[in-house]
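Hi U.,

Before I forget, here's the chain from the pilot set. I'm dumping it here mostly so it's searchable later in email.
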Amino acid sequence: MAVYRWIYANAKMEGNRKDYHVRICDPALESYKEILILLSNRLLSTNKRYGEAERQVCWFAGYLDEKTYVVAMGGDQKELLNISPDGYRSQHCVLAYGFTGADVRLYKRSDRMFEPLKDIMREIQQTGRDMEPGEKQMTGMDFSFYGQSPQDDGPKFGPNIRKSTNENDDSLWNQSMRRPVMTGIISVEDAKKLLKLFPDGCITVMEDVELTYNGKGAESGKSVLRELEEREERKKREKEKADKELEELKRQVKDSQKELEELKAARQKKNNMGALLWFIAVLIFFALLVLFLPAIYEGV
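Structure:
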């Protein structure tokens, strides 16, 4: 099989499994899993999808290495799958194919090409469970209908980040056989992160910009991914540590308040006891006075 599947999405599931996870990763793409996750996160860009960007479809095409060529799209599930979130929060997905051998060619940016993956994603949404490894294998799929002839004879793409227009997107897409390209990316921030993964890539974005960004400071996409994942893991550990320290501080404050209340109660009890003893002493004095007063008068 020369065509491999990738699905990364959130789904209508209980608990953490409703968040973004790998839903399908064919074994041949397992070694690319880390970089595909980071690529998917940039195509999703969920924290920036509002207004015009809510239903934006972002595209990627290019070689991950010398043999595997990937075409990916990311967008809103309601639009792409024709389903309703039914009360769940916004849902997005990234659908991708990995091509090798004779299947590597320039493909049209057509979401119809991803219908087999859409069917799987709809089933995941309906059943509330992910596909098991090896389940629903895709064999004998022919995507040649979506192939197109490269027409890379126009002006070369200058700045590696430019505004997404039909002309810019089409011109850039035609170059995807010789360098990674990404079109319709939500923000310049996402574009810069993608260029760290694919330093030779070119990108169009929704923002009105035209600039060149040097992303070659990273050794490789995978090393960048590991660095970012380690950074996120450190943030997570620091947050967990801070949360524990806060809970311990709250416990200490609570214990101190309890000790203070006990001390106040003991002091109040002591004060009450002292007042009672004084009152008893006064009563005894007056009782003795009443008792011995007649004798005193008689003696006088």
